[in-house]
Description:
Layout: H1 2-29, E1 35-43, H2 48-56, H3 63-75, E2 84-88, H4 105-121, E3 132-139, E4 151-153, E5 158-164, H5 170-184, E6 218-219, E7 225-228, E8 231-233, E9 241-242, H6 245-250
Parallel strand pairs: 1-2, 1-3, 3-5, 6-9
Antiparallel strand pairs: 4-5, 7-8
This protein binds zinc ion.
Amino acid sequence: MAKKIRVAVLLFVLLTVAVGTWQARVRTTSWKRALDVVVFPVNADSKAQTDAYIRSLDDESFESIRSFMRNEAQHYGIALLNPVDVYIGPQVDAMPPSPPVGGSVPQVMLWSLQLRFWAWRHGEHPILKPDVRIYALFYHPSTTQRLGHSVGLQKGLIGVAKLFAVPHMTAENNIIITHELLHTLGATDKYDFSNNQPVYPSGYAEPENTPLYPQQFAEIMGGRIPVSQDASVSPQTLETVLVGPETAREIGWR
Ligand SMILES: [Zn+2]
């Protein structure tokens, strides 16, 4: 009897999660109202400099994300004037669970549920009910030279972005946040994981250009600006990034 009750409770929880996920998917890709994106900063290396950088952030720090989404949505004929609003959330004093390295499908699924549970406990905003939660894990470059992988999950609408805590990196940080934000809205990666080169044509901002190289823009999910068939450079600001047609289709813009 006790076992039957446990199974029933588990099934109920899974069903609730599934229905919630489906409703969230419809809500976030219908583009009928602005999505409220909240960026929760986390001091990931416990450094005083990282803390100081986090304290310098406000809603304005994410203006380039807002204007990027506005311009790109307009390009695809979305009537909504402002597709996303981005706000700074309260600092979170906990680290999200790390994804399993080379994990099996069940391990990744378990981690994704753990992350959703963690975000449910660490994702409150005093005024808003966030549609998308991005956890910005900040590291100071004096202690960390290379950042680990950022992730964005459509199920649960959660992103975890690993970023540098220095003012001159804010513009690049906003590119990473936008990339993970679009993952939460259903966009897929469009670069080759073995060498970070954008995949042609979906990872190119302007695949029809002749000559094809050098490209002037990066496609947001392609990640980099291709300058030749086997070389590319990192965009420094969202002003040199576009949303390509394939990404636009995935997030419901066409
Ligand atoms: Zn990605």
